Amino acid sequence: METTLATTQEVINRAQFFDHWQGHRSLTRKVIEAFPEKELFTFKIGTMRTFADMVGELLAIAAPGLGEIATGKKAVLNEAIDFKNSKREMLRLWDLATVAINKYWDQMGKVDFQQEHLSFGQFPGTVQSALFYFLDNEIHHRGQGYVYLRALDVEPPFFYDR
């Protein structure tokens, strides 16, 4: 009797996903940099939030959410981040979040991406679905930032410049 071993061909591996995510974070940082400071905190279209409010959401989700996965300690979703109406402060907090994300990613070791996970104690799914949510949510809000920049007559960074 002949035995055949099944192999799984990965579309993207753990390191490639992380590099992809960090590329998106780098691009979002460039979008923040492109905003005129006043409009970053005041400009909005219709019922959409300011880009600063959207960045607050992104900061509330990515590093704390990954920290929750890496450490197993429940994170609190707190979007009320005080940027002091300063783009410099926002970028500083963005960079600190990037450092935290790097640290937590290194702590994850051989985490099972298919393992059930309840993000922030309220969003059920898997580790993988949580990670994709962190990334997809950032892309979504960055797209809104692009619309704002265009409405302000500011050329946004190239979307592929990651």
What does this protein structure show overall?
The mean pLDDT is 93. The chain has a two-stranded antiparallel sheet. It has one domain: Four Helix Bundle (Hemerythrin (Met), subunit A) (Up-down Bundle), CATH 1.20.120.450. Helix 1 (14-34) runs antiparallel to helix 4 (87-107), helix 1 packs parallel to helix 5 (127-151) and helix 3 (51-71) packs parallel to helix 4. It is mostly helical. The chain has helices spanning 14-34, 37-42, 51-71, 87-107, 127-151; strands at residues 116-119, 123-126.
Gist of the model:
The protein has about 160 residues and is mainly alpha-helical. The protein contains five helices and two strands; from the N terminus they run H-H-H-H-E-E-H.
Topology diagram in text:
Blueprint lengths: L13 H21 L2 H6 L8 H21 L15 H21 L8 E4 L3 E4 H25 L11
Antiparallel strand pairs: 1-2
Helix pairs in contact: 1-4, 1-5, 3-4, 3-5
What distance lies between the first and last C-alpha atoms, to the nearest angstrom? Answer: 51 Å
Average pLDDT reading: 93
Low-confidence stretches: none
Rg calculated over all Cα atoms: 18 Å
Beta strand count: 2
Q: From the structure provided, what is the oligomeric state, counting identical versus distinct chains?
A: single chain
Give helix % range.
Answer: 55-70%
In percent terms, what proportion of residues is strand? Answer: under 5%
Protein name: Damage-inducible protein DinB
Binding site for a divalent metal cation: 141
Keywords: Metal-binding
InterPro entries: DinB, DinB/YfiT-like
